[in-house]
Amino acid sequence: xxxxxxxxxxxxxxxxxxxxxxxxxxxxxxxxxxxxxxxxxxxxxxxxxxxxxxxxxxxxxxxxxxxxxxxxxxxxxxxxxxxxxxxxxxxxxx
Amino acid sequence: xxxxxxxxxxxxxxxxxxxxxxxxxxxxxxxxxxxxxxxxxxxxxxxxxxxxxxxxxxxxxxxxxxxxxxxxxxxxxxxxxxxxxxxxxxxxxxxxxxxxxxxxxxxxxxxxxxxxxxxxxxxxxxxxxxxxxxxxxxxxxxxxxxxxxxxxxxxxxxxxxxxxxxxxxxxxxxxxxxxxxxxxxxxxxxxxxxxxxxxxxxxxxxxxxxxxxxxxxxxxxxxxxxxxxxxxxxxxxxxxxxxxxxxxxxxxxxxxxxxxxxxxxxxxxxxxxxxxxxxxxxxxxxxxxxxxxxxxxxxxxxxxxxxxxxxxxxxxxxxxxxxxxxxxxxxxxxxxxxxxxxxxxxxxxxxxxxxxxxxxxxxxxxxxxxxxxxxxxxxxxxxxxxxxxxxxxxxxxxxxxxxxxxxxxxxxxxxxx
Lengths: 94, 417
Description:
Chain A is mainly beta. Chain A has one helix at 36-44, and strands at 3-6, 10-13, 18-22, 52-58, 66-72, 77-83.
């Protein structure tokens, strides 16, 4: 089981968390201007990186807040967790 | 190809079994092929076989980065069924099931296909309604499925606990008698042997590292760890790594890859005659011909390429198994493993042309790719050979997400993806 560092509560077991998919996906500012291809990208196309992946998590059984994380999907090793609204920290992408 | 028969077994027996030859050549890559399949799993090997057998395209290479059957083909729970809800899905999976029924004869290779029946348990009023709807929809589509009372379910699977006082009592079951299991390795080996006999080159330890395209964007061939191999037709059948391979041609697909786990017990004498699945408490189990109880767990909640998964996921499934089959509480689990499955937003596969000319993809099978192996391979070969889909896989495009024609089996499949 993974130990995940919630930026608000500290390190907790994976069971307390819910996964929220890829992070930093901006909601369209002018939805009416989007064509079908843009909508497909916004709704369905996600990064499926083999390597460092920026993603959302929610500390469901703790503070219940969303936060973001950088995780290496080859090892499941968390490189960083950070609060919503913050930029992703620079990490060594080995 | 050396044909297998009682006579050949006897003849080789007299020669102390020293005369058997390798079942496929150790092919070296040629500079070019009429078609290349990326991925040497059951789907990829089968596609190469049908390209040669059905469409007469024999100058074909199958490129496998590891060894034959070392990916998801060797990492699944071997269950076969076709009781899907929607018309498109029923057509697709039953096409596969019909091919399974003649596969050992066709390949002259015993894939140990055993139609022992797949029983899905209902534990609450919603399960009953959903499964009865499945039964009716399946029968309209010519797919066998029937409703059983708890007593009939126990009669079919005597070790099932139907005590009404457990936490999730069995209230009924849907049974597909034509469903069952097959030997996963034998499927890969059988297709490899049969494809090789028709001239297909099976190239192991050959990882694709790039896709080369001409000035107009059409496919010219693939870069590999063993050099460039040219072909105007490239079919990608790389399961969990589809996103990685398709990224080499700048094609983005609506896919996310997750670990899916399974585990087996120590082998015991025959005790479990069928396949039993429960969606609500997530258990599914069968007994291999070697005697192991083969148990499938769910996917992890996050995307990953680790081929491992968290142990608590497997534990959750074992808790459900122990409630349904209390007599297995003391069984020891020998090993567990994870495969990487690529999942689409509607939980149905993609078997289609791509925006890149000459590039085709078979992916997105989620947790249910093994059962579809012959059907997917057959339809993928058709799509590559004709440069257009077969009517059965015509709905399984990439564009269905843009156009809103999704085949939403996420809610309709019997086990959560």
